[in-house]
Amino acid sequence: MKSISLIAAILFIYSCASVKETSKINQTVNVSCGICNFNMTGDECDLAVEINGKFYYTVGSGIDEHGDSHASDGFCNAIRKADAVGELKHGVFYIESLSLLPQ
Would residue 5 count as lying in a domain? Predict the structure, then answer.
């Protein structure tokens, strides 16, 4: 009986470890510079989003593709709202579309 319980526990732990690490996102998010406004680590200013209280760097759109990031309303100085569509994979948000909302 103990061996069956042990095998069941090992299978349960293995199944939890193999949980899918991707999810589709289609929602309004906060977007800004990860270093300047979200206190993320990195070597340079990069675009990041906040999804459900967690911060993720992005792939598919650069920080200066939405205006000058160092302008008064740029991503290094402001946190903006945006409608975002993409996929969250292994801690990175892959952007399919990002539409800034009016301030």
Answer: no
Residue 35 resides in a domain? yes
Cβ-based neighbours of 47, under 8 Å, separated by 6 or more: 31, 32, 33, 34, 57, 58, 61, 62, 63, 75
Query: What are the b/e assignments for 71-97, b being 16+ CB within 10 Å?
Result: eeebbbebebebebebebeeeebbbee
Question: What residues contact 69, with CB distance under 8 A and at least 6 apart?
Answer: 33, 45, 63, 75, 76
In the numeric block, which tokens belong to residue 77? 């100085």
Count of domains in the chain?
1
**Mean pLDDT, each 10-residue run in order, the chain (103 residues):** 52 49 92 97 96 97 93 95 97 96 91
Domain that holds residue 83: 21-100
Residue 83: inside a domain:
yes
Q: Residue 12 falls within a domain, yes or no?
A: no
